Recover the amino acids of this structure.
């Protein structure tokens, strides 16, 4: 008698996995293989014919000062954003797990930056950081921090432009970190905290010796998600500064786009974009390890 | 001058006024001052031109899919869509027209070229030299147009023809001038009621306006298209350029250094750091809202103001390219390039449509409210009459009359050479604005900044020269 399909566990497992595998192959593996192939070719926006050129694109990339600036900026933006996202996410999570009237409305509002498409929210920030009409400048002027007619030119000064890009990343990713850490906070058994209170531990001691250590694996997940999203994002830079002023906010993703698509040199653009891979690989391994630790815990 | 609006806003009225000003600015916020609803309110005093039709040279059928930008003057698109479909109806071709934001078009073309399918004929507002290997050579189309209407305007030819390969990678039937826009009420008190005519006068007048009235000058040094245009105009006026007529890189010259040094003085005396942060709409917004004394841009910002802020529109006047130590030249503001990708089968229909469109370019000029100029001057016989008596409500009516002589002071990107693939990449990676910005901000000396730019430009030229797409 033929075995029923429902009884063939191995086959069923593959059938259930197949959609995911196809999805990953089509949208991750194939584009990644194409990126490697393009990086070793002279493919341009106007000429898709493939000619192997070895490491020539990488040599040109290494000779390009904008690439090195973009690489440095990518790490600076990601590092600073990651720290701020974790710290502010933890603070926000503490607030959101507390009981107060209108908690659900506050949670909804806090989540909005994360749910808003990044292009739309970046355009809002573009207006907020406008050279002349910035409402932020208006408020600073109102309270006397800026003189009459004085502006900060948020996107026109290298330091302030970098700060602005980091601020937008932190603004949009902190809610995600907060939600992840909220899950960690509510999972802490209440008896542990109650026991500490009975033993006389104050708020800060409970925070640093109980809550933070227990939430740390979850915080790591939040940090790594923040890092991945910041490292790979080009929408914020493209909308706010287009990499300026004078390439001060150029990152790998945006420079790969400008060089590869706008400039027409797809091969070199692909070579630049491939430098995203090592860190993303490290981040993926780290996330998987942390998730495994959480499972064990 | 920030006209006191934001100086001490303590009352509710002040807040409301500030909000109103912000709303006016926001309404101008699409790229290069796309003209929003409102527009000029006076009815045209001169009628639209009669359109012509002649039978195509071959029997046509099937489909024709057209992709072009969303014009900065929306009335053009209303006219174009009907015009294209009417032509299709007469010749038996089903025409579809898609408009997208101009900034998205290069990405879209790249995607369609890679996919080997998409639109049959595509228009962009700058040179599309980078797509030469994947598009049809349109020499026969240009020859036919030249036979019908005479010689094509040189700046359009140089923006669509590659002398290194002897191919017309695009068909360029039109362009848009890039004059100086100034606020008469600001320039009159400094003794220049008709605006500056030289770069020296610009420095002198703009510096006085800034010191007397606090209103800055608006020439961008940012990673955007208008900065790319105006800084090349300055370089040419000083006798400098990225390449010579034979496509050899010549950017590292005493003339380029002198232009950078001039811009440093201009920035220090007449501008603020906002010019490093601009996008393509910023200078329009600043002019129309009264925050800038002078910008370099097409007439679209002023057309916008005619509807949204008529008082400012009446105060905005124009000047041709400013004269420098060597010459007076401005880059074309917009340059129309039409391409037919190699994967397209409706090639005949595309070419016949482009000939029909060119034959009726007078309508394009009229419905773009005198924004579009034709590459074959004889095809717009009424243009000078329109310019001297604006059908769309200019005050005074001859405000645009100076554009009748725009050709001698306009040049293509890449002047004195062609707009090649290398020039396109230099343009799109903002090498020139960054060269100026670095020196102006004191991050490098003018000599060092120019030398660094030369290194970048040379690397780009070498790459495309090796690919056979650049001469020299």
């Amino acid at each position: 008698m033929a075995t029923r399909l429902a009884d063939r566990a191995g086959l069923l497992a593959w059938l259930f996995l197949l959609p995911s595998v196809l999805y990953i192959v089509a949208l991750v593996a194939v584009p990644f293989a194409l990126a490697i192939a393009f990086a070793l070719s002279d493919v341009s926006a106007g000429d898709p014919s493939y000619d192997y050129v070895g490491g020539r694109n990488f040599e040109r990339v290494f000779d390009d000062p904008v690439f090195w600036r973009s690489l440095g900026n990518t790490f600076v933006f990601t590092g600073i954003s990651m720290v701020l996202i974790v710290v502010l996410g933890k603070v926000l999570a503490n607030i959101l797990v507390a009981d107060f009237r209108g908690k659900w409305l506050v949670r909804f509002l806090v989540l909005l930056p994360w749910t808003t498409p990044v292009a739309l929210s970046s355009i809002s920030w573009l207006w907020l950081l406008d050279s002349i009409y910035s409402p932020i400048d208006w408020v600073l002027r109102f309270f006397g921090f800026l003189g009459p007619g004085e502006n900060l030119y948020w996107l026109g000064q290298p330091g302030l432009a970098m700060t602005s890009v980091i601020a937008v990343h932190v603004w949009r990713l902190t809610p995600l970190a907060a939600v992840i850490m909220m899950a960690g906070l509510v999972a802490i058994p209440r008896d542990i905290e109650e026991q500490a209170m009975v033993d006389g531990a104050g708020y800060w001691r409970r925070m640093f010796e109980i809550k933070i250590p227990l939430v740390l694996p979850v915080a790591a997940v939040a940090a790594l998600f923040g890092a991945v999203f910041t490292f790979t994002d080009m929408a914020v830079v493209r909308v706010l500064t287009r990499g300026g002023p004078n390439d001060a906010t150029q990152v790998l993703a945006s420079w790969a786009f400008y060089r590869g698509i706008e400039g027409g040199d797809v091969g070199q653009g692909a070579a630049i974009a491939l430098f995203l891979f090592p860190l993303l690989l490290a981040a993926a391994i780290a996330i998987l390890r942390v998730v495994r630790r959480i499972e064990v815990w | 001058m920030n006209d006191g609006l934001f100086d001490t806003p303590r009352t509710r009225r002040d807040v409301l006024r500030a909000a109103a000003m912000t709303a006016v600015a926001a309404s101008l916020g699409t790229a290069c001052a796309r003209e929003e609803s409102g527009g000029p309110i006076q009815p045209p005093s001169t009628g639209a031109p009669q359109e012509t039709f002649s039978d195509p040279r071959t029997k046509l059928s099937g489909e024709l899919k057209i992709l072009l930008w969303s014009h900065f003057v929306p009335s053009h698109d209303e006219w174009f869509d009907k015009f294209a479909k009417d032509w299709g109806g007469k010749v038996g071709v089903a025409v579809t027209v898609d408009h997208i934001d101009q900034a998205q078009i290069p990405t879209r073309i790249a995607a369609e070229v890679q996919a080997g399918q998409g639109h049959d004929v595509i228009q962009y507002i700058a040179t599309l030299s980078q797509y030469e290997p994947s598009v049809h050579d349109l020499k026969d189309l240009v020859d036919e147009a030249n036979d019908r209407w005479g010689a094509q305007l040189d700046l359009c030819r140089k923006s669509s023809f590659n002398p290194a390969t002897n191919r017309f990678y695009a068909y360029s039937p039109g362009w848009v001038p890039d004059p100086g826009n100034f606020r008469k009420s600001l320039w009159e008190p400094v003794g220049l009621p008709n605006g500056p005519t030289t770069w020296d006068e610009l420095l002198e007048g703009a510096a006085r306006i800034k010191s007397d009235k606090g209103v800055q000058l608006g020439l961008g040094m940012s990673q955007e298209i208008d900065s790319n245009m105006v800084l090349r105009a300055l370089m040419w006026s000083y006798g400098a350029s990225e390449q010579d007529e034979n496509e050899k890189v010549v950017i590292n010259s005493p003339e380029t250094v002198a232009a950078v040094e001039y811009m440093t003085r201009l920035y220090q005396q007449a501008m603020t750091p906002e010019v490093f942060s601009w996008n393509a709409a910023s200078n329009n917004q600043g002019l129309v809202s009264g925050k800038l004394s002078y910008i370099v841009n097409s007439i679209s910002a002023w057309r916008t103001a005619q509807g949204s802020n008529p008082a400012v529109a009446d105060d905005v006047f124009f000047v041709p390219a400013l004269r420098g130590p060597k010459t007076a030249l401005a880059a074309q503001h917009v340059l129309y390039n039409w391409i037919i990708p190699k994967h397209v089968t409706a090639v005949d229909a595309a070419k016949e449509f482009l000939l029909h469109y060119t034959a009726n370019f007078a309508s394009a000029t009229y419905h773009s409210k005198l924004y579009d100029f034709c590459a074959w001057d004889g095809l717009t016989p009424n243009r000078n009459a329109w310019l001297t008596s604006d059908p769309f409500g200019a005050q005074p009516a001859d405000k645009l009359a100076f554009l009748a002589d725009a050709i001698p002071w306009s040049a293509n990107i890449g002047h004195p050479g062609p707009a090649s693939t290398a020039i396109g990449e230099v343009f799109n990676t903002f090498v020139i604005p960054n060269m100026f910005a670095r020196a102006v901000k004191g991050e490098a000396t003018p000599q060092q900044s120019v030398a660094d730019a030369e290194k970048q430009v040379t690397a780009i030229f070498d790459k495309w020269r090796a690919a056979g797409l650049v001469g020299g």
Chain B has a mean pLDDT of 89. Chain B has two domains: 63-176+333-398, 178-331+412-466. Chain B has 18 helices and 15 strands. The first strand of chain B starts at residue 63 and ends at 69.
